[in-house]
Amino acid sequence: MEEAIVEAAKYVGAGLCMGIGAIGPAIGEGNVGAHAMDAMARQPEMSGSLVTRMLLGMAVSESTGLYSLLIAFIILFAG
Amino acid sequence: MSLGKGEKVFVGILLAAIVVIWLFALPNIGGMDQLSNMGIGTQWIYTMGEEQGFFTRINLLTVIMGGVIVIGTIIFAGVVGRKFKMIPDKRQSAVELLLDFMYKTVEDAITRKELVRPVFIISTTLFIFISISNIISGIPGLNVSVINGEPQFSLFLNTWYTPTSDLNTNATYALMTLVLSHGFAIKVKGFKEWFKSFFEPNPLMLPMNLVGEISKPISHSLRLFGNIYGGGILVLILSYMAKYLILPVALWGFFGMFIGLIQAMVFAMLTVAYIAGQVE
Predict the structure, then answer these.
(1) Hey, of A62, A68, A75, which one would you mutate to test binding to chain B, going by the most B CBs within 10 A of its CB?
(2) Chain B contact for A56, CB < 8 A?
(3) pLDDT digits over B249-276, tens only?
(4) How, if at all, do strands B150-159 and B46-47 pair?
């Protein structure tokens, strides 16, 4: 019985960890994309270098979401 | 679209190889087991001798794959670099494009002229190694998972094992960047100025500065590790039922090549940025 509770708690915990942890990066990436769109609409000739920098900024702001992904994997497989 | 004869033969061989690999992999595809029985996220650790110590445990596949990538890159560099011509051929122009781009980025970021060349060499080396090892994580090949303590080799059931999906590799490079940035700072500004930089803007900020420095390599290494390792596990779980149909190929292309190249770029850019922040 106790093992079953622990098993269930693992899945609930991993799901909560990933779900709550995805909020921050989503807002951040949305901001990055929105402002890149603004800049591209203002200066369409710059769009090539803007896309590169937008991807760099997205990859950096994504990292907090990846930490929660790692924690979720640790809860599921290593715990 | 018109293809030449050689290209037609190449595409034919590629398609035949895919069919052969698929037939080879078909009997090994199991159902959806319990996730913990699939050996997901396990690493093959070889222990030398009886005692479990820090120096006797080797992550064998990381060493082998890292060595293979390093040797392959050196051979490629030797072949291309021996005959640099005025009018470049395909390989030479690819190399020149990459090096030119990296040099321009480093030149913009680093204000001290004498440091541009060493920082360029460090960041480009990191970028080449990490991007090659990320790209092979989008190609099916040899991988090892540990099930009930026994290492099980799987060929073409998973992507190549990459050195960057092991935290030790990434932490090594991140620590190297931290040490190098402080070394450059001491060399350029002098010991006194470097020591003073911890007490900026006032001595009360010393703990904050120290924590900021320590957290740099942690976030630097965990970003790359999380992307590659998490992407690999995500694709493995998503595609476990439908291996070698259309879905895994697209996922491997996205997580392995696209995300991998962006993360290699981010790693190299952050290396440049950390060093530039120290030597300013």
Answers:
(1) A62
(2) yes
(3) 778 888 888 889 999 999 999 999 899 9
(4) unpaired
